[in-house]
Every structure is written in C-alpha cells, then in structure tokens.
Amino acid sequence: MALRQLILTKRISELKAKLEALRSKDEDFETRVAEMQKREAELEASVEEITEATSEDDRKIVDEAVAEFELEQEALKVEREENEVEKTKLQDEIQKLTDELEEINKKAAPVPAGAERQNERTVKNNMEIRKGFFSGMHSEQRDSIIASTEVKEFLSRVRELKGQNRAVTGAELQIPVTLLDVLRNNLDRYSKLIKYVRLKPVAGKARQTIAGAVPEGIWTEAVGVLNELAFAYAQVEVDGYKVGGFVPVPNSTLEDSDINLATDLMDGIGQAIGLAVDKAIIYGNRAKMLQGIVTRLAQESKPSDWPQKGPDWTDLHTTHILKINPASYTTAEDFWAAVLVKLGVAEPDYAVGNTFWAMNHKTKMALMAKCVSFNAAGALVAGQMGTMPIEGGDIVELSFIPDNDIVGGYGSLYLLAERAGADVSSSEHVKFIEDQTVFKGTARYDGMPIRGEAFVVINIANTDPTTTVIFAQDLANTVATPKALPTAGSYTGAQSVALSCDTPGATIYYTTNGSTPTTSSTAYNGPIAVAATATIKAIAVKSGMTNSVVMTAAYTIS
C-alpha cells in the first residue's frame, strides 16, 4: 500500500473515533433534556401557585430559579448545537478523505482480465431496476448510493441491532439524506394519494400562505390610471405528527449484502408510511394526525382550533356530503348523469391539475357494471377503466373506504406538510421464532384541505356516506384504564375501594353517582368509602397522553 494511502486510512480511522465519541454524547443530551423538562414542569407549578398573598421573598426565590433554569436551558441548547456542528464537520472531512482514498485505489488497481468485455459488462451493470425500493433507477445509480459513507455507516449500525430483545437506548438511526430522497421520490408507489395532493416539505411547525378569492380586473381607458386589486391571502398552520410502523427484516437479510438490506428495510418503511398517510388524507380526525377530507366536509360548526388567519370556514356537511338513489334512474345514462351532477359540486377554483376519485374495489366494479355495452365486434366491454367516465378524473382504489362511497375532488387543494427526516430503530421485541428482527420506521406529516369546497363525498346506494372510520389505537400514548380493588360485585357490609393506574404519573378522577368523570371531577387521593350501593366511574389523565377509557365498577351493598 502506498504511503499516501496509509496516511489517509489512519486519518479516517482517527476521525471516525472522534465522531463516535461525539455521537455517544447524544444519549446524555436526551437524559439532560428529560431532566430539564421535569424541572420546567415543576417551575410552572411553582409559578401557578403564586398569588397576591405570596411574599416578596418567595416571589424572588421563584424568579431566581426560573432565571437559572433559562440560563441552563440555553447552555444545553448551545452545547447540543455545537456538538451537531462538530459532527457535521467530521462527517464532511471523513467523506472528503474517503473520496480521495477511493480515487487513489482506483488508479492503483490492476487492469482486470478480459478487458475486451468491459463495455458489455458496463451495459449489463447499468440496467434499469424494475422492482423494489430502487425501482426506476439504474444499477449504477443504486450502487453509488449504497457505496456512500453515510449509507454504509447507517446499514452497519442497523446490523448492530440484530437480535436485541430490549429497548435500544440511544440507538435510533436517522435515515441518510440520500436514502430519504429516494424514499420521497418513491412515495407515490407506497401512497396512492400522495401524487394527487400538494406535498410541501417544512421544518417544524410552519404557516403556509394560501391564496383567497381572486378579484376581477378593472377595465379603464388605454391611458387611464390602474386600479389597485385587493388580493386576499390566508394562512394555515401545520405541525408534524408522527406516523410509523413495525418492519420485520429476516436475519438472513441483515447478514446479506448492503443492497438487499437497504432495499428490504426502506421498502418496508415506505409501505408503512404510505398506507397510514392515505387513510388519514381521507378520514384523518385531527387527533395527532392529518385532517381528512371527509372529516372537514362533515364539520357542522367552526372548530375551536380553526386557524385564526385561515380561510373563511363554511358549512359543507349538507352541500358536499351527498347520496344517490339508484332506483330512481331506469337507465345507466340517467344514473351517470346524476353521478356527474353530484361530483360537479367539487369546486375547481384555485386548483392545479385534475381530480381524483377514491373508492374501494367493490364500488369500482359497481360503477363499471353501469358502463357495460357491446362494441362493434359484438364483444362485451366496459366504458370505464381507470378513470371516471366523461369527467375523466383518476380512480384510486383504497380498501378502507366503505362500500358505495366515493371521495374525491381537486387534490392540489389538500396541503400535505412533510417534516424533514425519517428515523429507523430496533423495536423492543424480536420475532426470534421466525428468525426476524423487527425495526420501526417513522416519519412526520400534517395536512388539511385548504379549501373544503374543492371536495365531495357521495354514496351511490342511497345511504348516508361514512364520515368516520376507526384508526388503530395509539396504545403506547394512551393512559392505562384505572383498576379498582376490591373488584365490582355484591358485598355484605361497607367496602373501601382503592383505585390504581399502571401508567406512572397519571392522575385519576372519579364519580360515585354513575356520571361520566372529567378532569373537573374529584381527584383520587385515597381509598373510597362505599357504605351503600353505588357505581364508581373513573378515568386516568396524564399530560401529553390520551385520556384513558372510563372504568365502571358497580357495588351492591347489603
């Protein structure tokens, strides 16, 4: 090995050691952040307790504690930022030296045997990939991505998670930007709707400005003074809610090539994200997720969290949620005429591009049945395939949409905000029987229709369209249901009922008259004396989590 190659190899090794040392600080930062959040909550409680009767000395103590906390908080922020800057500098330097080393190695490499067939091999190696995560790319492009330092390090750290059956503290891996770009470009393969909506990358919480009504131009004399046109603009605020899924990867793949590992892992993440995003675009309930099209149309009053500077809220639940009685139409032509009139309720103002119409497979087949006819050769054909007859919008099949419901409109007027970055980490459980390691993939999105008038939902079987669907429960972020001991039942003599909750730090609120408890009900602080027949109902609440379901325990005392 040449002297320069030895020097570069040693220098790269030293820099990687320094980079690992900086990465090891991340776990400490997370611990300190958690401690700061706890202190912040305690200080907030202290501030809330200040009243007119609080002495000046006590006020001064609280003020000093708050000032000290803010200084420490700012110092931690600066320290984390400096650490990130140093990591970036090291990564750039490592990449630069690695590129130099690779260039030297290429020049020093011996000429391979059979050089006369090099052109043939180059053509074969540069063939377009037709399936998997890297679909649509040439193998040469794929290989260059896999060969990059950041991707190799990412895959190496993923392999280190193999076989771990516990929570992996500090092991969360940020997906390299190069892979993330490919994931974004492929999202239309995983999400059927994402190519129809307006996808906007944002950093953190952001306000998106949207155009309001466009004023009419004013005619004047050729030499007249121009009039000012008053354009109205509105703003909607978008955040970044996490969407994720578990991705089982066979251990054999973890031991396989970088190409196979990257393809399987990123393909699984893409599918998990795509399926969740589609369902939320249609039916998202705004509870830590997107606001769905149908949810917006079903609103009967202006929500309390409607953006202050947003577009004017309009009641659309009677004008844009419609149904058709097929028995009222004796011919297919009359039926289709009625369908088109209903679809025409979606307003195209300010829209860019065409419409889309989402429905399940059974509904699509029902529509096709209305288009059946015989062609000139006497063959039975359907005049509708992948688009809505006459109207021309694309038909999108989504299995979660109920039978006979059609949801759609002008997708460009649905704003889907994508937070930068996606992560992958090992799960707490390993499917060791199937010889698989389970990873989780997460990304962050928010979104909402910026003009509800651009969408419509209709039912073609004369029933009210479905406006809500059940999403998988977020058990990890829902407070556990309270428990009561002794359990509900019949007892001789008075009982002392103790309530408990498996979620640490949760507060229990209860009632004894059978009414539904709220945070205004009595807070539990000790056993409840039950001397006569009564029904105890309780909920558990914790900041940052969804309230538990109501526990009901009926006691009959004789």
Summarize the structure.
This is Phage capsid protein. This protein has eleven helices and 22 strands.
Write the layout of secondary structure elements.
Layout lengths: L2 H46 L7 H53 L9 H8 L13 H9 L1 H12 L12 E2 L2 H14 L7 E5 L3 E6 L21 E6 L2 E10 H4 L3 H26 L9 H6 L22 E3 L8 H12 L11 E5 L1 H9 L2 E3 L5 E3 L11 E4 L7 E6 L3 E18 L4 E14 L5 E5 L23 E3 L3 E3 L3 E6 L6 E5 L10 E2 L4 E3 L3 E8 L9 E7 L1
Parallel strand pairs: 2-12, 6-14, 7-10, 16-22
Antiparallel strand pairs: 1-12, 3-4, 5-13, 7-11, 8-9, 11-14, 12-13, 15-17, 17-20, 18-19, 18-21, 21-22
Protein name: Phage capsid protein
Pfam family, one: CHB_HEX_C_1
InterPro entries: GH29D-like_dom, Phage_capsid, Phage_capsid-like_C
Report on this model:
It holds the Pfam family CHB_HEX_C_1. This protein is an alpha+beta fold and 558 residues long. It has 3 domains: 105 residues; 301 residues, phage-related protein like fold (Alpha-Beta Complex), CATH 3.90.1690; 81 residues, Immunoglobulin-like (Sandwich), CATH 2.60.40. The protein contains 11 helices and 22 strands. Strands 1, 2, 5, 12 and 13 form a 5-stranded mixed beta sheet that branches. It has a 5-stranded mixed beta sheet with strand order 6-14-11-7-10. About 7% of the residues have low confidence.
Low-confidence stretches: 115-126, 165-173, 206-214, 427-433
> What count of helical segments does DSSP give?
11
Task: Give the second-level CATH assignment, the architecture of the largest domain.
Answer: Alpha-Beta Complex
Q: Per CATH, what is the topology of the largest domain?
A: phage-related protein like fold
Shape: extended
Largest sheet: 5 strands, mixed
- Give the number of DSSP strands: 22
